[in-house]
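Preliminary data (for renewal application), nicotinamide-adenine-dinucleotide complex.
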Amino acid sequence: MSSIKDSKLAELGLEEVSWAHRQMQVLTEIKEEFSISKPLDGLNIGACMHVTKETANLMLTLKAAGANVALCASNPLSTNDAVAAFLAEQDIEVHAIRGVSNDEFFQHLNRVLDTNPDITMDDGADLVTLLHTDRMDISILGSMEETTTGVIRLKSMEKNNKLRFPVVAVNDSDTKHLFDNRFGTGQSSMDGVVRATDLLIAGLNVVVFGFGDCGKGVAERAYGMGAKVTVVEPDSVRALEAMMHGYEVKNSLSAAKIADVIITVTGNRHVLDKTHFDAMKDGVVLANAGHFDVEINLVELRKNSKNVKRIREHVDSYQYGDKEILILGEGRLVNLTVATGHPASVMDMSFANQALAAEWIKNNNGKLENKVYTLPKAVDQKIAATKLKLMGGELEVLTSDQVTYLDSWEFGTS
Ligand SMILES: NC(=O)c1ccc[n+]([C@@H]2O[C@H](COP(=O)([O-])OP(=O)(O)OC[C@H]3O[C@@H](n4cnc5c(N)ncnc54)[C@H](O)[C@@H]3O)[C@@H](O)[C@H]2O)c1
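Predicted structure:
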């Protein structure tokens, strides 16, 4: 039986899911194919994902493919309770309630594993971690991972020969990380900052920690809104790339001193710590868009603050010495806790990859090693071509002469 907040929210959930569905045409095409071919017939799929209107469309696609689906949340604050209620009515076992305690959060993960999944799907490797610790009793065909932080964990497990089954790093598909991480996280993180604060971004010093796919997106959107953007990045090539984009590039301490708004998106921990809090301006706004809530050292901030109070929805004021430091969304993914996550149009491609990854694991059962795999490039090309066409773009087709020329080494200056 599902654990959800209120089944009466199901109708509202349907409206939300239908709204996202309009923007998810690639996934819809896959769903139509899957409802005929039934590639996942009879399989149990256990998913731990943000319970959003976009995820709902993925769950319905897996169901259309013949799978029995169970879903829990990958973050206690990102669940849309109406979407959870709607999915529970669709014969999907849902364990997700916005704002649950840590204990309940882990109970929900275990309830999904109690369904004995054949394939699991994670956003942050929480199910996989349990399958390697408390739930070693369960054997699965394989798993899929949605985000960079999860993939880093899984590659470390592979390197140490700890991985018990094959995993597809969906994040590493080009049609995922080059679009979802960049355009999705970029837009929705700035959306989260603005929704929580109503700040005018134009003219502010916005500092972005991390210039990976996500950081690039956040910096671009902040710059587009008129911010003076500064990037903090330990990788010299990426730091140089940020410089040539026209951003300031500073170390963490110099950046902390000038910031009006800081957004962390590194996948690392304690990138903002006591030395930074000490250096910050009064009234600075801190938000995190990285996967876990460890990027801002909130334990240290709280320890050294005289008073902490919620001053408006999603904004906590920490009285730190004689200044105020403002934390958005409790330091958890600001785009999902304050705003509503990535737009459906970009999740369309991420979730097309997830659906095809489930089929790929099933079709390659017995042939895969306990490694982290990326989907074949042909899948990326197919998803990108479909999306491009749906968005009204035209793809150039090479002549056979041009294909021969590019494949040859004999032709040079004529
Ligand atoms: N908010 C979302 O919806 C969302 C979406 C996708 C990914 N993510 C998460 O965002 C994080 C970043 O993802 P990504 O794909 O950009 O990863 P990435 O590996 O491409 O980039 C991370 C960057 O952070 C830099 N970095 C590491 N430690 C740092 C530090 N102390 N200070 C400054 N920079 C530092 C790294 O050098 C790297 O360039 C991950 O945790 C990922 O799981 C969030």
